[in-house]
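Researcher: Can you fold this with protoporphyrin IX containing FE in place?
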Amino acid sequence: MLFEAGLTLLTLFILLYIYVTKNFNHWKNVGIPFIKGTFPAGSHIELITQSRHMHDIFRENYHKFINQDFYGIYLFGKPVLVVQNMDMIRHVLVKDFNNFVNRNDSSLNSLFDGGEFDQFWAKQLIHLSGDEWKDVRSTFSPIFTSGKLKGMLMFMKEVGAILKLELGKYADSGEDFEIKEVFGKFTLDSLASCAFGINPKSFENSSTAFVRNAARIFTSTSLDNLKAFSRFLPFSAKLQKRLNLNALKPKETKFFCDVIRSTVKHRRETGERRNDLIDLMIDCMKDASDLEPNNENVEDQYENDMKFEHKKRKIEIDDDVVVSTALNLLIAGYDTTALTLSFMGYFLSKHPDIQTKLQTEIDQVLEQGGVNLDYQDIQDLPYLEMCLLESLRHLTPIGAILRTCTSDYKFPNSNIAVKANDLIIIPAAGIHKDERYFPRPNQFNPENFSKESKQSRSPYAFLGFGQGPRACIGMRFALLEVKVAMIEVMANYSFVCSGKNLEPLEIDPHSIMGYVKGGLHARIERRRKH
Ligand code: HEM
């Protein structure tokens, strides 16, 4: 019996070994530079041992291959092309977007395609593919136009006022605080208010059901990782789907789905309106084909690159799509925005001269516009945006942009070709530290985002929000949210450097996004107004 069990395990191990290593000659055969693969992780065992974060690996590789347009790696058994040439990046993200519509390849998709509750992850915009993605993206894009954001500004400001009071407590006590923890409460409450129409009261009580479930959604235990990893084993994903096994925090997923469903039901039954994201999504569902596409007349390269041709099919956007999309907005918008705010707080605490310049800009606009700034006043703060983008350049929450080839493609002026389902990685975290685009890349210098500096480099050298039709749909929302919080903070307080930060900063290898090891700390002081 023991012998048979041992033999079965050995056979399974050999099959797995063959499955993982069968393509390990791919890049050698293609004849491009590559990092060799070893069983079981491929080129980077650190991704399994969690000894280094993916962002650090891609940053290091970027400099190792700095003079190459591209190189190959193996992720587990899969050959992946890493593209670092600006023109090729433009082709993948924008010019030949129709060949690269998808983000996930089929094996990444199998991670999300499990039981009943995993389906709410599979149906999220961020994971959808092909025409299904185009239908949902074009249906919901209008919810982020400037007109709609203007309507949501007051919800953000309400939470901004609470943030100001909370920071007052730290100013009075003189204690250091973990910046993301405080700004995380701001982003959770303002997203929940704008997207779900509810108030989680994070500042008052950290144990409300909403806050607890959100906290669990954003952390991963070893068991969560194991369940996710099991999806990549041969035949495992199909089997798990058939057995209705959920790998992606089903209890918490159900909690948020119930919250969103009951909000939709309540709005429909009572006709109550807040003009928040839920109302706008319900509008989109009524008749998707009636909605105007996002054709705002903008000069902006990012906005123009985001447009894509799509003849909307006569599709039924059902409640499940709304639930998945609303859940996606929370998941994609919460941590990214909170991290950005914490990066900004940290850098401002380290650079008092830059902080003073920012405060002067904000003071001037407040003097002219009064305390109640409107949407346009907030757009007229160029230095605030420069500080924000420079913070994102240094510590990018999403340091690798993924695209999957949807039909066979040969890059123009090169001998490199990719096939359908091939995965491409664009190493944003590496590009952001390339001195050809950002002089003295390790210094914090908001001037990197002055009009002149932006004009002097390729627009694809900054990928904090991605680029092209599949770029961050919530970028404008995020920029507004960060600015509302920072105006409130900078008008009243100054960040002061803390000795608690673990310098030089290191990205925590256990985090999915770019969390900083040990957190980011600062103190805050009330400003002495003249
Ligand atoms: C500072 C905060 C944020 C950062 C740095 C950020 C960054 C990104 C990046 C890098 C991508 C991938 C883009 C690509 O592949 O080209 C992305 C996608 C996405 N983001 Fe954001 N994001 C932020 C805030 C938000 C917010 C507030 C929302 C929603 C309210 C949001 C919703 C999404 C969604 C739904 C996608 C997937 C889009 C698609 O596949 O069509 N993000 N974001």
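Model: Folded with protoporphyrin IX containing FE in place. The chain has one domain: 85-526.
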